[in-house]
Design goal:
Largest sheet: 4 strands, mixed
Order of helices and strands: HEHEEEEEE
Strand order of the largest sheet: 1-2-4-3
Helix content: 10-25%
Number of helices: 2
Structural class: alpha/beta
Strand content: 25-35%
Radius of gyration: 16 Å
């Protein structure tokens, strides 16, 4: 209920929701692992349906989460809302899963640039970009 109220009250051109568990767990976009996430790493289907409906009805552009520690972006068929799993940013033994997400926005566009070190530890480069246009905005 509090999320619905907050989103309804917002007059911002872009709405982002941040959470922990993904609604729709996906394999890592670049490393393709893990193929299947354990159930504790995603929202239960009964909660997911209601949560996603709230995001859709309240004009959310993206839901950002991170529990899987893998980078992915996903938009369910027929949905306007993107799920972006932001991966991890901690270094160490599992450095290949590190990602940094930079979000830029103005009244017409919302852009997500993802930096990863896919080739060697510590060498980050843009590996994915998602740009959304506001309804009615010229491309």
């Amino acid at each position: 209920k509090w999320l619905e109220r907050d989103l309804q009250a917002s007059r911002k051109p872009w709405k982002l929701v941040f959470g922990h568990l993904p609604a729709f767990p996906q394999p890592d976009r670049d490393w393709k692992e893990p193929e299947e996430e354990p159930e504790e790493h995603h929202l239960p289907s009964r909660k997911r349906e209601r949560f996603w409906t709230v995001l859709e009805e309240r004009g959310v552009a993206a839901y950002l989460c991170a529990d899987t520690h893998r980078y992915s972006r996903f938009r369910p068929a027929g949905s306007r809302v993107w799920q972006i799993d932001t991966a991890q940013a901690r270094g160490g033994k599992s450095w290949k899963f590190d990602a940094f997400l930079i979000v830029t926005a103005d009244a017409r566009t919302l852009r997500f640039d993802v930096y990863r070190n896919l080739k060697e530890e510590g060498k980050f480069e843009i590996t994915d970009t998602l740009t959304l246009q506001a309804p009615g905005a010229a491309p």
